[in-house]
């Protein structure tokens, strides 16, 4: 068998096509470019998705196309059994990726009979999915071989008898299951269950007589409690009738109180209407007006005070003395001072004779006196102008205050006229008294109506007893209170329930246990069943020991045959350094170097050597479990990444030789593989 061509919309592969050649196909691509996705696509086309996988890591979710397109693909291959085949899988609806399947001849439309979505991989390759994944489908992160009952069965059967169908793991598991059914431990299994049942039956025989005696005593006590319950219910019924009578009387009193309060409110309201009392809203409005009048009066008083202050300021201003020229004596002193001031410099500085100096001083004094007189006259004139301006300002302020007083008086008169029009009063004081008195009366009316409404609501909230259930004659209330009667009834009911539970439990136990004769017969049967189960358990233990001995013998043949083939491949991969490989049934590997006496666990090897060991085991498994006549292709996804250059060359030489008989797809993120094998006739290099 070999792959020919694929076309995939799968994961990051979007309508990606790729052709394959016979022999060794080296497919180069950098990391995160879709190599592992390509390998997963081939497996999905052959075997579909695992049905039990769930969650985001399930393959059907991991490989959802990145573009959001429906998952689909086509794989063309050639098979020895079916010839040219085209496999198609696509997604008919969301949530069922790759569910629709078709298998046709290449270039034809007719389906190939027998190939279905569930089994086409096993029919084409000749092995189930778990065997294919553990042999020919090789990934770098999955080189180690995981244990599988199917893989073990094929290896063990083929190296011994050449037939498939027997597995030590399955047989041992089946025997272990049968042993656990009979005795898993001291508590679980058929034998412990029978032992517990026998012990219970023996205890039940001793319990029957005690149960019968207890049942009779419980029935007698239950009859007495039933009589007590009847008497208590009679007392509660009497309490109920007395309560109904009291409820009826209470409701009647409440109704009368509500009607009386409503009547008083109506009478009071009618009285207000008869006295022609204005509505409450009118009174409220006029009370607001009275408050406004009070505010206006305060403003009026303040305005009057400001007017008086302005008038006083004006009178005080008028009372001040008017500015005048200097008095004559002052003028005389001024003239003498000027004369002296002019005479002294004339005598001392100019050195004039006294007569001339006096004449000079007189002339200078006249000039200076004239200048002083003119400046004084100008200053007096300016003061008179300033005084006139100040008096005009005081007159204006007085006029403004007169206007304000007049405006406030007019507003007060207007508001009072509105109040007198609505309220029968001749002045503000009587109007205020009238409004206050009648608002108080309206408040009283509101309280009366609210009380009437409260009483009516209270009356409506009281329970309305059925008049037919209210007895005409007074009922005498029992001496015991309702609470005490209810508590006694609850206690009686609890004791009855307890007794009935005891009686039911006893009856159930008696029915479950049956008669002493039946229990004795059942006990004898269980003793016989216990003896038989014990004998079966001993026989199964013997079979398990025999199987383990047989498995030890088979193990001595199982491991060497597979190990021999793996050692041949491992020797070629390591250049002859390792000459032995040992495997157990879990496919856990050990190896020894040439000349060493002891074998080393694979976990002790380097990463590269460990990967080379398990690659050798994988190739040996392919030789043993894959049908030789089908030449199943090998798929290796970055399986040589950890190999050094020399061992990588050895591995490539080995793969080149194997590709002579089967197709090999080598997916790699490196270029050394193509560089080493490029140009060989059986090697094709492709870039993804």
Considering the chains and any ligands shown, give keywords for the structure:
single chain; 688 residues; alpha/beta; 5-stranded antiparallel beta sheet; 5-stranded parallel beta sheet; 16 helices
Unreliable parts: 156-166
How would you spell out the order of helices and strands? EEEHHEEEHHEHHHHHHHHHEEEHEHEHE
Helix content: 55-70%
Strand order of the largest sheet: 2-1-4-5-6
Q: Tell me the fraction of residues in β-strands, as a range.
A: 5-15%
Tally of contiguous helical segments: 16
Main sheet properties: 5 strands, antiparallel
Can you tell me the overall shape? Answer: flat
The overall strand count is 13
Query: Which structural class best describes the helix and strand composition?
Result: alpha/beta
Overview of this structure, please?
By secondary structure, this protein is of the alpha/beta class. It has 16 helices and 13 strands. The strands form 3 sheets. It has a 5-stranded antiparallel beta sheet. A 5-stranded parallel beta sheet has the order 7-11-12-3-13. A 3-stranded antiparallel beta sheet has the order 8-9-10.
